[in-house]
Amino acid sequence: MEKDFYYNEKKLNSTKIWLLYLFLGWSYGSMDKIGTQILFYLTLGGLGVWGFIRLFTLNKSIKEYNKKIAIGLNFSTDELLKMGLL
């Protein structure tokens, strides 16, 4: 289907995001939150606190971003369940 193609083009790859975060501290920028990413860098990850918390919240953020993309492409509830987004 056409919407599957668009979803696969726009969704975040969790392995790629994790590698970017662990080596460069980059995660918010990939989720269209450039201002938050700049703030993260300027505060050095909240002096480490924000960076530590991000270790536990990154997977959920990736899932929520991918869910937002899928909903924007009008995937049904059943399709979202099959993709593991609900």
Task: Offer a quick outline of the entry.
This protein has 86 residues and is mainly alpha-helical. The model has no long low-confidence stretch (mean pLDDT 94). 73% of the residues lie in helices and 0% in strands.
Give your account of this protein's structure.
The protein has 86 residues and is an all-alpha fold. It has helices at residues 2-10, 14-24, 34-42, 44-47, 49-72, 77-82.
Structural class: mainly alpha
Estimate the mean pLDDT confidence: 94
Share of helix, binned: over 70%
Distance between the termini: 21 Å
- Spans of 5+ residues with little confidence (pLDDT < 50)? none
Which helices and strands occur, and which strands form pairs?
Layout lengths: L1 H9 L3 H11 L9 H9 L1 H4 L1 H24 L4 H6 L4
Features of the shown structure:
86 residues, mainly alpha, 6 helices, 73% helix, 0% strand, elongated
